[in-house]
Amino acid sequence: MEEPNARPHTASDTAQLRLTSLTPELKCAVFANLPDVTSTKSLALVSSSFYYTFLDAQTLILSQVLQNEIPTDLMHGAFAAYNASRIPVWTKQAVQDFLDEYFGNSVPHKAQKWNLSEALRMSKFHSCVEFFATEFASSALSKNPSTRGSNAAPSFTEILRIKRTLYRFELYCNLFRKPSYHRMVRGVRNCLIQPRPFGASEQREIFFDLFSPWENEQLGCIYDYLVEEITVPFNDVAEHDVDWGELSIPWVDTFGSSEIWYKERYLLVGLDFIFQLSTASTYDDRHRLLKSDQVSGESFLSDAMIPPRLLQHDGVPLEEDSDEEKEPWSALLLMTTMIAVPPKHGDRFYFLEDHRRFRQRGYVMWDLTRLLEWEFFALPVQALAAERLPGYSGCLEQQAEMDRQKVSWKERSRIWGKGGTGWWAPGDESHIQWPRRYQNPQVPSTQKYTLALPKILKAAPKSLG
């Protein structure tokens, strides 16, 4: 006999009772068909029976769910990028051993015994890769030379190329940026030993030269895109922060090495940091990220890619590569025949400045059929290469911006010399934080001030006026 005050079972209660009464085998089957790791965590917390079922088969379940979430063609690169961030002690030999395994035929991700925290980290980063892949495709397609129906959403193979390159970018960052303190070697008396970073020629030998030319050009596409992504928040701080004004950090885009020198350091932190920075909507958030201690870098992606190399992939003639790789290769090869490569570049024809506008359009990411529909290799392409050269009026505007930049540096240097810090704009010093001696004019001026900035900015040379 039912109690008079008993609550009647709802449809939700009935469904939950049916789920919890499933056998462990069926519960595992439910887990194995979930689309992502976050859903797996949520289901494990539904009831104690699901929780204990998950614990009993955690490795098996997470391995399957990660395969559901990350395509098989991406798993090798995704796991490599993840594993590179977990090298316990960073040494050149450790990096070389890692790359030997990466370029070999091993598949270490299949032997990985996943736990929930590791799988969640992989899943979270894959979401970051998906975000940038979607944004890159949207940005590149919006800049194409045609407005016809071929601007449809990227095909599976196109989006796969973009994601694979994003993972390769993260792999590069994790291997070649300056290691954090907990990954450094400890010497006598437990003192940290500062490791010597790989030089540009060393990076080419063990990394870039083992990829095909179009894969390096694809990496160049992602590099150019990510520089654009951080430009708005970077310029916001560079234009208004007093400390950065004292250091004459530039924000006017001159397509030169001066402003790129600073931005590249932030790229090396990795995609997760770039995501936080590019989505930060307020000055305070941008300022906090750009001055964080995690920002450090010694090696440059662009420097390592610049010198020439032979047009072959790991000693194999290009025509013997797979059919899948021939589409981006055709785009790169045809582009080179359309635009004369200056003699100074020798036999290197990827990551050229003349191809910058094409990389912004992601030309080596797309299927050849899309490029042909665009008539991408027709006469208008010649005009695209000339876009990087500003006209007379553009030069005047740029010079005016540079003059305004110099005035800004001078004003903020004056404020910094008096001990002021914070946000500044022309004619507005209301947000400047002054030292106590300026609040009380009776206190004598005896204190000296130093910059509290990331090491990478302290080491940076002042921009040329």
From TrEMBL:
Domain of life: Eukaryota
Listed name of the protein: F-box domain-containing protein
